[in-house]
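Bug report (template v2)

What were you trying to do?
Predict the complex of my protein with S-adenosyl-L-homocysteine.

What happened?
Run completed; filing so the output is reviewed.

Input:
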Amino acid sequence: MVKPPPLTSRRDLLLWTKRTLFSLGIKPKKKLSQSFVVEPQLIIEIMRYIQHYKPLTILEIGAGLGTLTYHIASLCKKVIAIEIDGRLAFFVKKLTRDLGNVEVITADILEIDDVFFNNVIVGNIPYHITSDIILRISKSKCPLAIITLQREFAERLVAKASEHRYGKITIITDYLFEKKICSVYPPIAFYPTPSVYSALITMKRIRDYDDIAKSLEKLLLCTFTERNKLAYKVVNKCTNIDISGELPWLREKRVDQLTLNEFLEILHIMLKIRK
Ligand code: SAH
């Protein structure tokens, strides 16, 4: 019988985590971002969001020791838990076997089929591939993501125009999602303790990744290579058309001062001119 992860206190969960790792003979691998949640409040907060949105199926990214997996399983019909490390996946299977609604898949989250991403996504995700995961979620049909990532990255997602963390990923996700930083957790919320703070965020889809999103992404890729330059010059260079006549305000702004709506206006004019 495997003892379930306790939510009684941080101390209890830390002890459970250390004992489980010891009994499995597993030394966490830094290169796989293996830092396991030991703060029950973080799990309880995620559970609250799940209870609010009531998803049928959840895709969990990076199950680790199954701490989150175990507790969210009671809140939905099915959890599909993806874990790249076979030793951990094997343990999570044992831990959740009796629950009857958890499917554990040993795989790289970036390699799995698109259909899995149609579900609500939950997870304390592996930090070294945060960008790739956010982009994959963006391009999928995932209606809602409730995920923990490093605080700096979360701040990039919600940054406002002109702020130094504002960039391509901010704008493309502004187009696709309503985003919110729910809470920030200190390094000791995880074991082994990482060097960074973490943030729990929610991303609720407001648009599909459509043709406009594709064109927007292309335009952002080109223009943000010169984020501090005057926008009209950079846009001219990237699109080969002069649109500053139609959008006089473009002459006064740098690339990183443009909001999502301003980029959408640029795209709109570009399409009109090209027709
Ligand atoms: N969610 C767990 C584990 C967090 S650590 C918890 O909160 O305790 C991140 C987990 O992601 C680790 O278990 C790591 O092995 C796994 N992981 C790392 N890269 C991955 C990848 N490409 N695909 C799937 N899982 C991955």
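What did the reviewer find?
The pocket of S-adenosyl-L-homocysteine is lined by residues 32-37, 62-65, 67-68, 82-85, 88, 108-110, 123-124, 126, 129 (CB under 6 Å). The mean pLDDT is 96.
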